Amino acid sequence: MTIYVDIVLLENLCMNYIILFSTAYILKLKIKHLRIFLSSLLGAVYAILAYANIIPMYTSVITKIILSICMIYIAYYPKHIKGLLKELIVFYLVSFALGGCAFALLYIVRPQDIFMVDGVYIGTYPLKIALLGGITGFIITYVAFKVVKSRVTKNEIIYKVIVKFDEKELETNVMLDTGNMLKDPISGEAVVLIEKQKLYEIMPKNLLDNIEKVLGGEFKEEQEVKYRTRLRIIPFTSVGKQNGMMLGIKVDEVKIITDVDEIINQNVIVCVYDKTFSKSGRYFGLIGLDILERSEKKNESFENAKG
């Protein structure tokens, strides 16, 4: 059977691109198409070397792992080891799913043209089967991750945040609450809830201890006047309480440190929570998906503007 190098290169380039794109989409990473293309090209060149058996060591497991790490770095440039491992695991899971779907379709459509060379399956299958298998595998993997993610307990989704306010910084842990849809009704800015005891570190105690008076317009202390332009009234609804009001304060910046990235948002309102969120003390605030998505979109727009 004649194997054309350009066809093998194109097939692997497309499959690698789908796998890397799917990994980034599932993990909500910044998608930079040029970096993903270069990473896909590296994987495709490796496939050519493996098919041709030019350098035998390229077929070793260790070399394949090293190649995968290189592809991850080129495509996403993770800033932390933990992020690299997470991206690598998802990359392999997506690869197995996409490869399995493509091979299954190939076996059903043209099984007579499949054979193995040096542990690698090759054949004269059309490119559209590989692409169709890749797309099918992506859909299956994405749905599976959505189902698994929906079953993850809230206690496992803890982020570290750094809140900057009036030249002071507060570092604390917050929990991702997918049901938290709070936002400033006027500006539409995202809202973070943080316990009052923690906010004492960066905000005036006299202001935080007189929330009811501030909400009622009765508090006229110096601190209230100084921060008047930062104060917000955030309406909320919870179980057992309709049409509630919370005091919100516009902060200078909120940095969210995730497993794979550091997300910075300068359009955030911090609401003062007068009770405790966690009896065990694992977290002291709540954030919603909205602040993560807005931060990612803002960072992408900034990068595009720089480019």
Please give the structural blueprint.
Layout: H1 5-27, H2 33-52, H3 61-76, H4 81-109, E1 114-117, E2 120-123, H5 127-151, E3 158-165, E4 168-176, E5 190-195, H6 196-199, H7 205-208, H8 211-216, H9 222-226, E6 231-238, E7 241-250, E8 253-257, E9 262-265, E10 268-273, E11 285-287, H10 289-306
Helix pairs in contact: 1-2, 1-4, 1-5, 2-3, 3-4, 4-5
pLDDT averaged residue by residue? 75
Query: Helix/strand/pairing class, anyone?
Result: alpha+beta
Radius of gyration: 25 Å
> How many H/I helices?
10
Distance between the termini: 46 Å
Strand arrangement within the widest β-sheet reads 6-7-10-5-11-4-3-8-9
User: What portion of residues is helical?
Assistant: 40-55%
Q: What is the string of SSEs from the N terminus onward?
A: HHHHEEHEEEHHHHEEEEEEH
Low-confidence stretches: 296-307
Choose one word for the global shape: elongated
| DSSP strand count | 11
Summarize the biggest pleated sheet.
9 strands, mixed
Tally of structural domains: 2
The portion of residues forming beta strands comes to 15-25%
Short description:
The protein has 307 residues and is an alpha+beta fold.
How would you portray this structure in words?
- By secondary structure, this protein is of the alpha+beta class.
- The chain folds into 2 domains: 5-151; 155-306, no CATH class.
- It has 10 helices and 11 strands.
- It has helices at residues 5-27, 33-52, 61-76, 81-109, 127-151, 196-199, 205-208, 211-216, 222-226, 289-306, and strands at 114-117, 120-123, 158-165, 168-176, 190-195, 231-238, 241-250, 253-257, 262-265, 268-273, 285-287.
- The chain has a 9-stranded mixed sheet with strand order 6-7-10-5-11-4-3-8-9.
- Strand 1 (114-117) and strand 2 form a beta hairpin.
- It is elongated and about 80 Å long.
- It starts with a helix and ends with a helix.
- Mean pLDDT is 75; it is low at 296-307.
